Amino acid sequence: MGNEQWARADGNARITQVAGDHITYASGAGPAPRALLGLPDAPPALVGRDGPAKELVGLLAEGGPPVVVVAGLAGVGKSALAVSTAHRAVELGWFGDRVFFLSLRGYASDGGVSGPQAVQEMLRHLGVRDTDLPESPEGRLALYRAKLAAFAQAGQRVLIVADDAGAVGQVRDLVPAADTHRLLVTSRHRLVAPGFAGRVLPLDELAEEPAAELLADAVLRAWPDDPRPVREPEALADIARRCGRLPLALAVAGAVLAGDPGLSAGELAERLAEARSRLEALTFDEGGVPVGVRAAFDLSYARLPADQARIFRLLTVNPGPDCRTEYAGLLTGEGEDVRPKLAALVRASLLTEQPVGSGRWRMHDLLRLYALERGEECAEEDGREEVTDTFLASLCFDSEVAQAVLGVNGPGSSGPGLPSVAQALDWLDTERPTLVAAVGFAADSGRLDTAVTLADLLAPYLQLYGHVQERLLMARQVLAHMRTAGTPDDTGVALCDLGSALGQALHWPEAVERLTEALALLRETSHREGEGRALNLLGIAYAATHRFEEAREAHQGALDIFRELGVVHAQGTAWVGLADNLQYLGRTDEAIEAHRQGVLVMRVLRDRHREAGALGGLGSALWQAGEREESLAVLEEALAILRALGNRTRMGWTLNAIASSLLSTGSSREVRPRLEEALSLFRAAGDRHGEGTVLVNLGVLHQLEGRWTQALEAHERACALLDAPGEPTGRAGAVRALAGTLGGLGRFTEAEEAFERAAAGFAAAGDVEREAKCRQEAATVRELARRHRRWWHRFTR
Fold first, then answer.
1. Which of 165, 552, 713, 738 has its CA at 20 to 30 Å from residue 31's CA atom?
2. Is 530 helix (H, G, I), strand (E, B) or coil?
3. In this structure, what are the phi and psi dihedrals at residue 201, rounded to the nearest 5 degrees?
4. CB 464: neighbour CB atoms within 10 A?
């Protein structure tokens, strides 16, 4: 009897018995084909991502973590980085054809692909037909893990790219059990949860140059011969900045330019300059469907719980670039409990803490505009107006405390409950961008009295500690609102503030115009104290423009008014201004006496800041009078006061003054450490004018010590730093120093040309005396060059 043979076929299978069972499949039956290398195409260019790409490749290599999550703001380029890196891993031969891609749509309104659905989709990719899938999710998960385990046993690595996950639940079951495989996830959230050990790789916006390059690349891909990237590089860079260097925004801007070849980059930059309409401008209509930044942000915002959404909206009440935790608690009413909710926004890539652990929170620029839109929509619900009043009142109070401790208008306050000088200064330095922005914000929102109060509190600090541009911006903002909503007296005072700020910024012609306008207005309204202040400031501006006699009359007029009114502190400032002017006029003895009067007034009033300033002027006058020992002692006294006050900018100028005095004697003793400290202070503050001025003296020191090459480097750098509008005298001085170095190196023709340029600079500044001296020096060098050429000609014969 022959052997019985049994076989069973399912579905469309058919059994043919030959010698044993041989199973064939009808069309559409049998194992499904695997989705080999199911990756989308790599982006044409991965611009500006060399660092993250290198790090991610390293994480996918053997020995890396099983799970990597590329997290970041919507539109920051997470998918592009992940797909590009997956292609790179294939090129390296790490995963063979076992690379799979899943689009999870985690931020879709329906929640996207669930965790069990993701496992089922992966089984399909691995060649399992739906008809062969286990019925239960647990069974499918077990089969998925078995498949991965089989690959691992065979020494074959698998890479799964799970794109756009919205929650850990979508990818938790995809985590490979074997360390040999990799799961690469992209998400707007930093996916962290108990039992889910994924390495998070946060992705930020691009740097400036790569952002502009990406924008140009988007245009040139559509129009390879497009002249705009070459013709308008600055406008493209401006567009990139307005886009917050966010790849999605750059892609939209690039599409706008590519879609309208006649639109100049400059025109698009102008459209994007208006913050209120920027998100609308960064929208591209793609077949009736708006594609852009706002739509991408909508998906993230929709996922927020109500309490986090409210915090997200209210953080924009703070007009500064970032927000400290204490102010976030004040804005939201959460108090000390706000940090966990801020951290939740960080995990959602809607906020960053920079640096980590600092307690300072920042939104991307475009995201902030989006949050502001949502905040204004929900203003009544959130109590936005009341929150704004509370926040601005807090800034005013904290500023008043800090100014009182620093003593910017008199004796400094100290005692229990008050911060130290260092703490007050640290708070002002840290919050300065927010405080200055708050002045404009208060004025724009109709809170002009609050804006003026805050500006008055900040102005002395900004002036005394050398924050010139912030002071100038604030003064312009206040004046603009005063011209439309203020009284004539208020407008005159605002004009004085702007004139003072313009002078500190070395914009002397405009300073004279504004102060002249202020003087006329304040005289018209009989505001005597304001008139005196305008005169005193005009005296400073007149002296800076070499109108010395007019300056003397202005200072004397101011002093007379302040004496009449009995305003002692203002008398001290007038004495100092008059003393400086007398010194310019060469009336040194009178200048010394006036300086001593200024020092005395400020010392009696215990105004340490202005006492130090008066001492600096006295030291200069004493040196001019030949009283060098007393001069240096007075300057050292001023330096000690400024160190105690933490005034690094004015310390730099005082150190430079001491070094300059010593250099004028031809001595290099004790000069170098003072110049190096001054240089360090100015560089730390980003003060180009101060740095350039110190480098002039450092170059002279190199000359005295015979280091002519180093002197040339210092003077060339000084000329570059001082080559800015408003600095004609400083620039001319640097060019003159360079000319001397070139002469010392025997480069007489270049030296002559430099002396002539310096003379022209002094002439433009109205400094006739130094112009004449430079002309004479040019003639001297010209003669040296002539003699050198004659000697060289005779030598070569």
1. 165
2. helix
3. -115, 95
4. 20
